Amino acid sequence: MSKAMQKPNIILTGFMGTGKTTIGKRLAKELSYNFIDTDVMIEKRAGRTIQKIFEELGESAFRKMESAVVSEIAGMQGQVIATGGRLMLDPGNAAALSQTGMVFCLVATAEEIFERVSKDNQNVRPLLAGEDPMARIVNLLEQRKDGYGRFSQIETSLKTPDEIVNILLARFQIKFRSTIAHKRQ
């Protein structure tokens, strides 16, 4: 088995509010892996919130920061990585993180996403600023449908975090076994 696959990463992608951070933390604990939230890394390095980065520097600068973080963490192993909602839609980012990990896309209905982000008082969602956030969610989900569709899908609507973690663990173990078998041939 190659060194890169001794402890393959689990990369969680998907739209905001699908549970990447909540599930990622629980999954990392279950596997005794480290947890990385790319948005938190960016905020710490920039010394400001994502909302402030968008306001002061623009989305383009934020996307460059995302790519810089990906370059740093791509070679690590034994990580559960929760990515920003659009990070894995960039082909370079997806290729880099896929090298040493398995990507799972958490999905939820637009209604569930709206409910979750509306209750989240800790995170401001710059992409949902405006008069009709529900319409914006629907529009963004449609725009990202094909990009997210490239990854193994895990439905999170109407499921508890523990149920989602169990589904991810089962899929990870199946994929990991097939990776081991393929490497031995």
TrEMBL record:
User: Catalysed reaction per UniProt?
Assistant: shikimate + ATP = 3-phosphoshikimate + ADP + H(+)
**What does this protein's record comment on cofactor binding?**
Binds 1 Mg(2+) ion per subunit.
Q: Write down any Gene Ontology CC term.
A: cytosol
Q: Name one Pfam family in it.
A: SKI
User: What molecular function terms (GO) are annotated for this protein?
Assistant: ATP binding; magnesium ion binding; shikimate kinase activity
UniProt cross-references to PANTHER family, sorted A to Z: SHIKIMATE KINASE (PTHR21087), SHIKIMATE KINASE 1, CHLOROPLASTIC (PTHR21087:SF16)
Which Gene Ontology terms describe the biological processes this protein takes part in? amino acid biosynthetic process; aromatic amino acid family biosynthetic process; chorismate biosynthetic process
User: Which pathway, per its entry?
Assistant: Metabolic intermediate biosynthesis; chorismate biosynthesis; chorismate from D-erythrose 4-phosphate and phosphoenolpyruvate: step 5/7
Listed name of the protein: Shikimate kinase
What residues does Mg(2+) bind to? T21
Q: Which domain of life is it from?
A: Bacteria
How is the quaternary structure described? Monomer.
Gene3D superfamilies reported for this sequence: P-loop containing nucleotide triphosphate hydrolases (3.40.50.300)
HAMAP family, per this entry? Shikimate_kinase (MF_00109)
Subcellular location per UniProt equals: Cytoplasm
Q: Which gene encodes it?
A: aroK
Fetch the InterPro entries from UniProt: P-loop_NTPase (IPR027417), Shikimate/glucono_kinase (IPR031322), Shikimate_kinase/TSH1 (IPR000623)
Q: Where does ATP bind?
A: G17, T18, G19, K20, T21, T22, R125
Q: Which cofactor does it need?
A: Mg(2+)
Question: Which key words tag this protein in UniProt?
Answer: Amino-acid biosynthesis, Aromatic amino acid biosynthesis, ATP-binding, Cytoplasm, Kinase, Magnesium, Metal-binding, Nucleotide-binding, Transferase
Per UniProt, where does substrate bind?
D39, R63, G85, R144
Q: What EC identifiers does the entry list? A: 2.7.1.71
Q: Of which family is this protein a member? A: Belongs to the shikimate kinase family.
